[in-house]
Queue: 2 jobs
Job 1
Amino acid sequence: MSTRELREAFVFEDLFCSGELRLLYWETDRTVVGGVMPIDATLKLDADKELASEYFCQRRELAVVNLGGLGQVTVDGTVFDCGRLDCLYVGRGSRDIVFQSNDPAAPAKFYLISYPAHTTYPTTLAKQSNAKQVKLGSQETANQRTIFQYIHENGIKSCQLVMGVTQLEPGSVWNTMPPHTHLRRSEVYLYFNVPDDAAVFHFMGPGDATRNIIMHDGQAVLSPVWSIHAGCGTKGYSFVWAMGGENQRFDDMDAIAVRNLK
């Protein structure tokens, strides 16, 4: 595939647009990826024809991470105050989901990820300070990072969603290296905190036939089950990772040795 074809197939470029709610339906695991950037007015999450449902979460669960200024998410009349990098899990059966920013001059940027759900778990808000933190990597390999796990087996309960945020330490630029695949779960990366004069080289594809896609701030990339998902930035950055599929085991992955990459 050419660079253009790769981007058309796997990259959601214009995720956050002022005053808009934007959604992408991905057939793999029936994933929905979205961005909501309310300014003066509230924005409501409705079902579209692809879902064939009365309302968005009729048969789905939803995760929301705020990447911008202070905002609120109202779920069936209950208001959740969401600061930067707070995560809200919205359970199946939630009917009315509305987003708003506290300050139009510093709007919230709500990142959405959704998968089908077979049962209902409670709508739950998790502050970044409450997330499970996992330290990985080293300065020697330029991949020292902190993983904040929000929705996982021992955190917020869900049907199949697993979600968290990875922040690289100063001087580190590699993520998810050495790489891996997981045939039982697809994944989506949303890169943020990428400076305007920087980029992340995201690597995908089978381990013996890799490709790269250049990612900029606020862009999401889809990772099929057969693909690695790793990146190297020209400067520091962070990303939201989210998975859906057959199981929720964070360590259910098939590692690929760096020496075997091609």
Note: The domain at 14-127 is CATH 2.60.120.520 (Jelly Rolls).
Job 2
Amino acid sequence: MPAQRGYKLDLAFLTTSPVHVNGPDNGGTGFFFTVGPTSYLVTAGHVLADGSLGLFTEEEKSDIRNDPPEITYFLRAPEDVKSLTRFAIDLSDEHRTWGFDPEGGDIAIIELDQSLSTLAEFVDDDSDPSEHPFGSLAFREVDFLGSKELRTDRAYNLSYPGEIYDRDTKFPVRRNTLISSPINFDYSGKPRFLTDARMDPGTSGAPVLVKPSQVEHPWGEPLKQSRGNPVLIGIHAGNVPHESDSETTEDSMRDYSYSDLNETWRPEGIKRAIVDAN
């Protein structure tokens, strides 16, 4: 029996990893996503390509492939989820699938060398631990909100805010957030909506989630997920800047040129990025 059952841990905490780009002082948050036998690391596009937003041209992708950043992530051991192994990704490998949302969402996906179990597969009491080679878990497309309806405006994300997370276990930090624009409508014509939460550097790429009890099918029946799998409603990309120029005062650590409102991109951009990259 996998040891994590004894921790009484919310399994959603096993779906994320810090993403380091050219060293531990740069990067953001990533989470895992699986299609069939293939697993991917999902993060914000600007984490992978610093300072680049929106549509990426083939020339820009070629530049990244020819001079790739060193990207690393962590996977957990099935016997002890506090034990981690660091892995590196080579974006110059022509056989590796990676890319961005072709519709301009601030989303990047990178194919992993490892195949991860999904939240839904993990774990039955009589399951064989050898069937789960890693303790880290992945989302699937069925975990998207899709056409289902929210019964709440409260969500949460799992991320690595700056220096404020446990560097030993690398469990993410949960931050509560409010859905601040109508989730069924695109904000400013792009596949995104706004959330309201005080976020920090390092949180870009975090999954934005709601509890399954707060979701119902279009015909009104509450969503039933026996293991309580969270529903993925978006990917956190960063704070929305104020249009007016505001300066940070010397006695304040807060950058007032940014609001507490955040861009959250719809998760369908993950599938678009995978299809486009393949």
Note: Confidence is low (pLDDT under 50) at residues 1-6.
